[in-house]
Design a protein that fits this description.
The complex is a heterodimer of chains A (about 300) and B (about 270).
Chain A: H1 2-15, E1 20-23, H2 27-30, H3 33-38, E2 43-45, H4 50-62, E3 66-72, H5 80-87, E4 94-100, H6 118-123, E5 128-131, H7 136-146, E6 151-156, E7 177-181, E8 183-191, H8 194-205, E9 208-215, E10 217-219, H9 223-233, E11 235-243, H10 248-259, E12 263-269, H11 279-285, H12 290-302
Helix pairs in contact in A: 1-7, 4-5, 8-12, 9-10
Chain B: H1 6-27, H2 32-37, H3 39-46, E1 65-68, H4 74-84, H5 89-95, H6 125-135, E2 140-145, H7 152-157, H8 160-163, E3 170-176, H9 190-196, E4 200-205, H10 209-221, E5 227-232, H11 257-270
Parallel strand pairs in B: 1-2, 2-3, 3-5, 4-5
Helix pairs in contact in B: 1-3, 1-4, 1-11, 3-4, 3-10
The chains are: A alpha/beta (about 300), B alpha/beta (about 270).
């Protein structure tokens, strides 16, 4: 996913001469260094200075440039005041904040490096469009699309290599969720790399069972697609590598509570600090993997409990 | 040095101070003491002969930028912009701190109104302005407070010319009134540190038009390094003399007719023209 991002930045750099890229000391993790090699004069490396990077990025965007600021997600906590201030500058900015290393999928570096609250933080700031790609192919398409249209974007990347399962060009429209598989018994709404887990789970559950909705834009959420599916199945399961607090689960729950009260289950992290381990191992421990999605769906549909 | 005679600047300073006192007394909230401390600093800048802006076309790409990082000085920003002709003075009196007006309690970016950046939380505008200066071919001035430099990331900005790139078109104007919200503030070795990181550092009496004009000229003539202008000012300058330079007045406007009158008496006594 990160290589796809770095390569997409280089392509975007060829297309948009005004594109500027910044990184705060993680360019070989976020892969923004690919852009630096191609366009050294249009790249700013800040070192370990997250507030400074976002402050500069906002100021550069205020000068009318396209700007992509990259960092490992957990370090952007340092820059939260600057991110909020950037979002309050008006609707003529074109600013993308890219966060890599999200969720427990970060793995062995442990809780300090696994950002499991980034979606919640970013949802609290008005004006940010929150984009959660599913695989490397979609990242490429997303970078193309979000550098076309002005706005403040938060782009959430994951660390592990996950299969590229979408054919290029991958589907992506801002604010649109995609019904990736049709089923009647339960709706599975997933985001980011968990879309792949949701699809493999649906496969295991069999034809016509799970209605899988892939969310590539958490804010604004595609209300119509989710409501239509919830109305069809009467049961909704959310799947995310993020704390349930403030993430996809609460977003969908809030929507359904207002518009179409529906029973729900969640696959996601409790409100806790996670542990070190290999990504697959952690997905198993925290019940975020395909098996967990299958289990939750089965129990929800067939377990008889309300 | 200036586009208008200094005597006219003194007259403008007097009128703007009177408007600040009236405005903030009427609104009932706002940061009068900070605004009063910056009157000469701001007027000297925008009336310097090199300074370019177009009040009819606030977003003009050839404009010199004025970022305000200590956003609580925005009443002064609104009144100076009114004086320049971006909008009317009445509009400020009608809209100050009212819902959905361009005159929020801290600045909301609005180029047509001459408002270069949204601000409030301290230590942010100084970085935004530096980023801006990296990319535009005009002067980027940024007005910041001394308390703002208690923020470690603000002290980090001083290292930007060394670690990032020196931008000679960045001119940081530091309002050294010596008082933060809850305590006095001192800069310590800040000017020495700035010099080590390759800033041109200039010091000036922030209430002396002629001296201010001279340091602004030196700043724009520096072609290699950014400039840091430390303006020594008095918080509450030209208001109630009993409160000038006194701690504890931050964001506390006169609340009674008596307190308001004390400000007006002080203003008349301080009048230089």
């Amino acid at each position: 996913m990160r290589e796809g991002f770095g390569e997409a930045l280089v392509e975007a750099g060829k297309r948009w001469p005004d594109l500027r890229v910044l990184d705060a000391g993680t360019k070989n993790s976020t892969m923004s260094e690919l852009f630096q090699r191609a366009f050294p004069d249009r790249f700013y490396t800040l070192g370990i200075n997250e507030p400074g990077m976002i402050g500069l990025a906002a100021g550069i965007a205020m000068a009318g440039r396209r700007v992509v600021a990259c960092d490992m997600s957990v370090f952007l906590h340092h820059a939260y005041a600057h991110i909020r201030a950037a979002a309050r500058q008006g609707d003529d900015l074109h600013l993308v904040i890219t966060a890599s290393h999200t969720g427990v999928a970060v793995g062995p570096d442990g809780a300090s490096a696994q950002d499991t609250t980034d979606l919640a933080r970013m949802r609290l700031i008005p004006n940010f469009i929150i984009v959660t790609p599913w695989d490397g192919a979609q990242v490429r398409r997303i970078v193309e699309v979000i550098l076309e249209e002005k706005g403040c974007y938060y782009l959430r990347l994951n660390r592990p290599k996950i299969p590229v399962f979408l054919k290029e060009p991958a589907p992506f429209e801002i604010g649109r969720a995609y019904r990736l598989r049709e089923g009647e018994r339960v709706t599975v709404v997933a985001l980011g790399d968990k879309v792949y887990s949701a699809l493999t789970a649906a496969e295991a559950l069999g034809d016509g069972y799970a209605d899988v909705i892939g969310v590539a834009t958490l804010e604004p959420l595609d209300v119509d697609t989710i409501l239509a599916s919830a109305a069809r199945t009467g049961r909704v399961v959310t799947v995310e590598d993020h704390m349930y607090v403030g993430g996809l689960f609460e977003s969908v729950a809030g929507l359904l509570a207002r518009r179409h009260p529906t029973k729900m289950r969640r696959v996601g992290l409790d409100r806790l600090f996670t542990t070190s381990g290999e990504p697959d191992e952690l997905a198993r421990i925290y019940e975020l993997d395909t098996k967990a999605v299958v289990h939750v769906c089965r129990e929800f549909v067939e377990g008889g409990a309300g | 040095m200036f586009r208008i005679p200094i005597q006219e600047l003194e007259e403008k300073a007097y009128r703007i101070r009177r408007d600040l006192i009236d405005l903030i007394y009427r609104t009932g909230s706002g940061h009068l003491d900070t605004s009063l401390s910056l009157v000469e600093v701001w007027l000297a800048l925008v009336y310097s002969d090199f300074f370019r802006c177009d009040p009819q076309d606030g977003g003009w790409s050839g404009r010199d930028r004025v970022f305000l990082s200590e956003g609580h000085a925005c009443p002064l920003q609104y009144l100076v912009n009114a004086d320049l002709g971006f909008h009317s003075r009445d509009e400020v009196f009608e809209g100050d701190r009212r819902p959905f007006t361009p005159f929020q309690g801290h600045t909301l970016r609005n180029l047509a109104y001459g408002l270069e950046n949204s601000n409030g939380s301290l230590g942010i505008g100084i970085w935004q302005a530096y980023g801006h200066a990296l990319e535009v071919d005009r002067w980027v001035f940024c007005i910041a407070g001394d308390g703002e430099f208690e923020e470690p990331s603000s002290q980090g900005l001083l290292s930007a010319p060394h670690f990032l790139r020196p931008v000679p078109n960045y001119i940081l104007i530091l309002n050294q009134n010596g008082l933060a919200q809850d305590a006095p503030v001192e800069l310590g070795p800040l000017s020495e540190v700035a010099k080590l990181y390759d800033w041109q550092v200039l010091q000036v009496d922030g209430h002396d038009f002629e001296a201010l004009g001279e340091v602004y000229r030196q700043a724009v003539e520096e072609l290699r390094r950014p400039s840091l202008i430390i303006c020594r000012t008095i918080k509450g300058k030209g208001g109630d003399p009993a409160l000038e330079g006194k701690l504890g007045q931050h964001g506390r406007p006169p609340k009674t007719e008596e307190a308001y009158q004390a400000y007006l008496v002080g203003l008349e006594a301080s009048r230089r023209v």
